[in-house]
Amino acid sequence: xxxxxxxxxxxxxxxxxxxxxxxxxxxxxxxxxxxxxxxxxxxxxxxxxxxxxxxxxxxxxxxxxxxxxxxxxxxxxxxxxxxxxxxxxxxxxxxxxxxxxxxxxxxxxxxxxxxxxxxxxxxxxxxxxxxxxxxxxxxxxxxxxxxxxxxxxxxxxxxxxxxxxxxxxxxxxxxxxxxxxxxxxxxxxxxxxxxxxxxxxxxxxxxxxxxxxxxxxxxxxxxxxxxxxxxxxxxxxxxxxxxxxxxxxxxxxxxxxxxxxxxxxxxxxxxxxxxxxxxxxxxxxxxxxxxxxxxxxxxxxxxxxxxxxxxxxxxxxxxxxxxxxxxxxxxxxxxxxxxxxxxxxxxxxxxxxxx
Length: 355
Known about the structure:
Elements: H1 2-9, E1 14-19, H2 22-34, E2 38-43, H3 49-61, H4 81-101, H5 103-111, H6 115-147, H7 151-172, H8 178-205, E3 229-234, H9 237-253, H10 258-279, E4 288-295, E5 298-305, H11 312-317, H12 328-336, E6 339-345, E7 348-354
Parallel strand pairs: 1-2
Antiparallel strand pairs: 3-4, 4-5, 5-7, 6-7
Helix pairs in contact: 4-6, 5-6, 6-7, 6-8, 7-8, 9-10, 10-12
């Protein structure tokens, strides 16, 4: 959205591009420069006062500021679950309280002195405020399903929330006050959806809820026995090397030929090594979970980490064709693997390589 606005208004002007992601910033600024725009860049975190102040000082040093475009936000692909829930509880809760207590004033702005409409408007706003927190959680859950490519369950959340539960609640509340029951029914529908989500998660996971990670609905064993998989947590380069050697023996035991054995070990060492070398370099505590599965005659390598986003498929597209030796490990993996897929959700990187 921000790039579309810039392209409309920034021709002939200096652009200062701020982003928390160095990768996104590099990609967007490169596209702007190719299109003839004059671009400066700076890394900025909208949640840190010092970072925002540095951004403002940089902007002031470039001249008078004509436009300021802010598209910062938090979604399942941008922020941690804790941060998103904090925003949900604090800001949505504050909004709900304000709407509830200032419903008369808000209604008066639009409906004036029409007493019947005014009374109905206050009631509708207050029921809406009562449903905001539930609605926020429901939307977050549906967004997570979409971000992890569970499109059908995500659509079912919207259908149940906006249609099925609303109709059911209105029917159960049916009476003389038809309009009032509609607004109450819409609020109750949000509550019913909120209560249905844990039930859906338990059915999907086939067990009772244990902790908040259960809501991610991750397949723990990928449908294979423990003997057909290796699962490790990586914290250092030494453990990356040890994993590569362990995978070589594992693939040989499973009857893989030397070509696929070498490629599996290479993929694990190259990708895990990149995460440790670059993702762990910010000094913050991180985790890297690696799982290798032998299934249906192929090896499946899965990696999950909480470091900065890195999409190997996107990186591969921008490799320098004039220097074929640069990132040679990544080049070999992308060309020889059957499938490479990457996704980022709830601030976790998820990589799957099929060999």
